[in-house]
Hints:
The protein is of the alpha+beta class and about 230 residues long. It is built from 7 helices and 4 strands; from the N terminus they run ββββααααααα. It has helices at about 90-110, 115-130, 135-150, 155-170, 180-195, 200-210, 215-225, and strands at about 20-35, 40-55, 55-70, 75-80. A 4-stranded antiparallel sheet has the order 1-2-3-4, with no helix packed on it. The protein is elongated and about 80 Å long. The chain starts with 17 loop residues before the first strand and ends with a helix. This is TerB family tellurite resistance protein.
Amino acid sequence: MLPVRGRDGRTTRPARILGTRTAWTPVGDGEFYCPGCGGDRNYQRLTGRRRFTLLGVPVLPRGTTGPVVECAACRHHYGTDVLDHPTTSRFSAMLRDAVHTVALAVLAAGGTCSRTALEAAAGAVRAAGFEEATEEQLGALVEALVADTGRVFEQPYRASLAIELHEALDPLAPHLAPAGRESLLLQAARIALADGPYTNAEREVLGTVGAALTICATDVTRLLAAARLPS
């Protein structure tokens, strides 16, 4: 850069002789969770072409850059991996569906669907976002699940529940803090304990829940024991 002198001979801001400039082109848009704003925002996906500049005028191509994600609100640029994080609304839906699936799996493993277990499950499901859920609705869903997969907790039945749990929990687990993953497992454990001690089938389902939430076996054992203590 060269100094620029004003009419009075004093040096003012420097003039940039050589530099680079990027021309951005939109190639897509959508909604994402902006880490800068801390909430859901619209975004544009951009690719760029870089050029050398001479005195601010583009003269020679320097290749491409990007793609990047530009927040429509704060205008900050982020790597495209930011799109892997679910939006707030999507995360809420994932958590709600996970709680619902876990509650049904625990009730189905318990086998009896006692009133106390149904009440505990319905309370958890309502708190997660299914505000109209009732004990009767959950009971009917468990009956349909058992009728579809087999009434005895045998291998095909266990495999079916495990698949359902992993489909609901695997996408959610990376976005939950450790405390959140443990809270979800404890919630499931309290549903199982609502009508008495854990059955072997309930322990197996809870172990699957813990594994899908990437909680190690030692911590799963600790949490299942903690759930039995008076709160």
